[in-house]
Amino acid sequence: MKKQQLIFPLTISFSLTLLIVSARLFPDVPSWIPPGTLPVGPWDAFRNFTGCRQGENYNGLSNLKNYFQHFGYIPRSPKSNFSDDFDDDLQEAIKTYQKNFNLNVTGELDDMTLRQVMLPRCGVADIINGTTTMNAGKDTETTSNSDSKLRFHTVSHFTVFPGQPRWPEGKQELTYAFFPGNELTETVKSVFATAFARWSEVTTLKFTETTLYSGADIKIGFFNGDHGDGEPFDGSLGTLAHAFSPRNGRFHLDAAEDWVVSGDVSKSSLPTAVDLESVAVHEIGHLLGLGHSSEEEAIMFPTISSRMKKVVLADDDVRGIQYLYGTNPSFNGSTVISSPERNIGNGGCSLTSLWSPWRLFSLLTFVLSHFLL
Length: 373
Prior knowledge:
Among the domains are: 44-118, PGBD-like superfamily/PGBD (Muramoyl-pentapeptide Carboxypeptidase, domain 1), CATH 1.10.101.10; 173-358, 3-Layer(aba) Sandwich (Collagenase (Catalytic Domain)). Helix content is 29%, strand content 13%. It has eight helices and twelve strands.
């Protein structure tokens, strides 16, 4: 009897967890859902800091310091109890961030800087172990009429992880597997296969799916919140995914995102829609040893807007991966899998979500509760 009493609340708890997981996986939100129900990004409150300057105190500024520490701009310390003071460390962090993202380097929280900060992004730090792994290859040159223009250097912008970790030389084939608990469809898995193919096209590396999750070189899974790797997810938008450098092989995606599997993501009526292939291509770059790039067109640029598709390797990405692994003899300098429109179908209006049945169940539950209350 006691065992039955224990199982019942556990079943209820598990069901509620599924509802939370599935609540943001519809490709389109019907217009009749009451306004204000759409989730906002975890960093939207940062917009209130526009115009903040050094030497002043602003309520909640410690949260922004936590953001900069997480992505490597403020050195990690045993205790991260930041104050709300706009101090020297924060100003230096802002300057480095502005340089990395090709912004006007002022050390102030201007509108353009905060717009960049609030964008959804990869959870991998831009600066690792105090080493700048994302150096902007652009300088700002002030002209006589006080206008500013960007001068491009001829150097590459790609970066690698400290110590230049890579998969063993001579190991040309890497296996990957999906976390069994996700029960992904073949359609979803094919998105990752295409993402892997974009990298193998320009190198000698090959990627093969295996059903043996524990023995795979690369392990892919969708998880919520704190999932045991020290890098908890933060819900819709914010950090979308993260992957570890070679030869770790872990590749985690935030299950709370509104992942779009196929179709034209730019036409989604859901402002939080995120293109799955775009994020997958980026994170595979980390799995292979690439850090972040300051080149906006590069796949390895850290941020991507919602409802944006970005899957084509830029020259900077190609130079970076070939620096680590060499060139595919068959590569002629242009990618074959290169068209961002590859997934558009039915006039660009067809979208497939990861777990559509669960999204539908969640929506029906929401409507029912709305009428019962």
